[in-house]
Write a structure and sequence with these properties.
Pfam families: Sugar_tr. Keywords: Membrane, Sugar transport, Symport, Transmembrane, Transmembrane helix, Transport. The protein is mainly α. Helix content is 74%, strand content 0%. The protein is globular, with a radius of gyration of 23 Å.
């Protein structure tokens, strides 16, 4: 069988498979809700008075530096502890994905997340609050490992990019919903923050129910020796009876995968370096765009710029809505124009936005005082153009590309490493941003702009286009054809298709 013959297999988008895509994507909504809720809660006076009274006192002092009001390591730990838990749990999630399958791993993700919502909403002391964050993080570690893999493996090749981006779309919807919730609960005293944190149980419960309804992926079933169940699942998700060609390709890939007893060890072989490097460096770049600094702390950031509490929450609702809308652009374009072009275009737009924000704050916002209303509005617009470009590029591609560039024998291990890298650098940004804002002031935006320039060069020179490449033929079709990466295969036998 030639690679060309395996490009497109017969399939129909049935109501059942569409439901599987949507239900699984609620794993992204869980993640997004937590990203959005954290920043809003940390800006609520009732929350600060109960858990971080020193921060609240500092916030009340008008003479305090605009850029240092929220510089508190414990407050940052409230947000960032989740990502340490997600980092550790992603390795357990990788093992669960391999041994138990994608479906049970998604179920476990939802259970941890619901537990986190209950504990967080009931917290009365800091350590219980942090415990809730750890449970949230464990759920996110399991969900961020299993859901993108599930979506990639269940999608027909011609729609793979769009289906995988459903994860990122639901992340953005989660952020937007969280911003709306915070805007409402911020007016409920003194327990509005409890409602915000407790409502995280809703997407967790939907995912829990969804994890019972969805099918297991054919590659996961076949990989675990359940060939007949795998073929039946393939027929079910493709909506056709004639699935022999795709089934045999998956079986062949799984047979090759079974020869690998230590997938994490194989990840560090020379031939794995291109996939390993790209899947992990893209996680670093995704975080060093500065997006999570903006999304975590949008209400705090807008208050720092001189917006009132209500106005700052409303501004973050606006950016959240832009985030959702722009992700639809990615769903429409990713399988038409490809991954690489979206990344390159967005790098330019993000660079211009970051430099402009930094320049405005440098000139017009001092340590005290507020921005002029016109300049404040311009900053909101620039934040929106930045969020917009991220939402159709580095956001979804950070999850899509790593899920489609590994062979099956190292796919769960490689993706787990990518998830853990994402969590490490998300933790770094979450823990350091408010301190960086205090010390670098407006220059923090130039710091992120420098990284965005580097990202654009990476996409231009080192990133191959994965659009339309079967995930079981990535070595032959991507790495061996790329002018830089092909040198890693010079002394290795070419695989048979």
């Amino acid at each position: 069988m030639t690679s060309q013959e395996t490009e497109i297999f017969k399939s129909k988008v049935t109501l059942y498979v569409f439901a599987c895509w949507i239900l699984a994507a609620f794993g992204g909504l869980m993640f997004g809700y937590d990203v959005g809720i954290s920043g809003g809660v940390t800006g609520m006076d009732d929350f600060l008075i109960k858990f971080f009274p020193n921060v609240h006192e500092r916030k009340l002092h008008a003479a305090e530096s605009n850029f240092c009001k929220y510089d508190d390591q414990m407050l940052q730990l409230f947000t960032s502890s989740l990502y340490l838990a997600a980092l550790v749990s992603s390795f357990f999630a990788s093992k669960a994905c391999t041994v138990l399958g994608r479906k049970p791993t998604i179920l476990m993700a939802s259970a941890f997340f619901v537990a986190g919502a209950i504990v967080s909403a009931a917290a009365n002391v800091n350590w219980v609050l942090i415990l809730g964050r750890i449970l949230f993080g464990t759920g996110i570690g399991f969900g961020n490992e299993a859901v993108p893999l599930f979506l990639t493996e269940i999608a027909p090749i011609q729609h793979r990019g769009a289906v995988n981006i459903l994860f990122q779309l639901f992340v953005t919807i989660g952020i937007f919903i969280a911003n709306l919730v915070n805007y409402g609960t911020g007016k409920i005293h003194p327990h509005g923050w409890r409602i915000s944190l407790g409502l995280a149980a809703v997407p967790g419960l939907i995912l829990f129910i969804g994890s019972i309804v969805i099918t297991e992926t054919p590659p996961s079933l076949i990989e675990r020796g359940k060939e007949e169940q795998g073929k039946a699942a393939l027929k079910k998700i493709r909506g056709v009876e004639d699935v022999d060609a795709e089934y045999h390709q998956i079986v062949a890939a799984c047979e090759q995968g079974r020869q690998v007893k230590q997938p994490f060890k194989k990840l560090f072989k020379r031939s794995m370096f291109p996939a390993l490097f790209i899947s992990n460096i893209i996680q670093v770049f995704q975080q060093f765009t500065g997006i999570n600094a903006i999304m975590f702390y949008a209400p705090v950031l807008f208050q720092t710029l001189g917006f009132g509490s209500d106005a700052s929450l409303l501004s973050s609702v606006i950016t959240g809505l832009v985030n959702v809308g722009a992700t639809f652009v990615s769903i429409y374009l990713v399988d038409k124009v490809g991954r690489r072009k979206l990344l390159l275009q967005a790098s330019v737009q993000m660079l211009v936005s970051m430099v402009a924000i930094g320049a405005i704050l440098l000139v017009h916002l001092g340590d005290t005082g507020t921005l002029d209303r016109v300049w404040a509005a311009v900053v909101v617009i620039l934040v929106c153009t930045f969020v917009m470009s991220f939402a159709w590029s580095w956001g979804p591609m950070g999850w899509l590309i790593p899920s489609e560039i590994y062979p099956i024998e190292t796919r769960t291990a490689g993706f787990a490493l990518a998830v853990s890298t994402n969590m490490i650098f998300t933790f770094v940004i979450a823990q350091a941003f408010l301190s960086m804002l205090c010390h670098l002031k407006a220059y923090i935006f130039f710091f992120f702009a420098g990284w965005i320039l580097l990202m654009g060069l990476f996409a231009l020179l080192l990133l191959p286009e994965t659009k339309g490449v079967p995930i079981d033929l990535v070595e032959e079709r991507l790495w061996r054809q790329h002018p830089v990466w092909k040198r890693f295969f010079k002394n290795e036998e070419k695989p048979t298709a």
